[in-house]
Specification:
Length: 123
């Protein structure tokens, strides 16, 4: 039995999903990946205990839209946001949500590990 809860990777770019899933598994985390926010919402993972590693900019439902929908449904999912395109409007919208943290692409393994530790151990 794996002592680490799963990390759910939601990103529209397949190479990003694949590489992050491999990295997370090497770090000891089981993973599930989703190509869209809608795919995550429609999965059973939405009600599982785990952490969401979420890209902000995706076609269709954005990462921010997903966060707002999870909040509307009163689902307290720990979320680490990642983006390659930071804009002040998005950052301001995110300030009202209790996120684990924020990663700007490209990010280092150490930066990801730090946020995963913050989520897992409350540090």
């Amino acid at each position: 039995m794996n002592p680490n809860p799963p990390v759910f990777v939601v990103d529209d770019e397949e190479p990003v999903r694949v590489s992050l899933s491999k990295l997370l598994r090497a770090m000891g985390y089981p993973t599930q990946s989703f190509a869209s926010a809608t795919a995550f919402l429609e999965s059973e993972a939405v009600s599982e205990h785990g952490c969401l590693l979420l890209d902000l900019r995706m076609p269709g439902m954005s990462g921010i839209d997903l966060i707002e929908e999870l909040t509307r449904r009163q689902l307290a999912v720990p979320i680490i946001v990642m983006t390659g395109h930071t804009d002040m409007k998005s950052v301001q919208r995110l300030e009202s949500f209790p996120l684990v943290g924020f990663l700007e692409k490209p990010f280092s393994v150490d930066q990801l590990r730090e946020l995963l530790d913050r989520w897992r151990f409350g540090i």
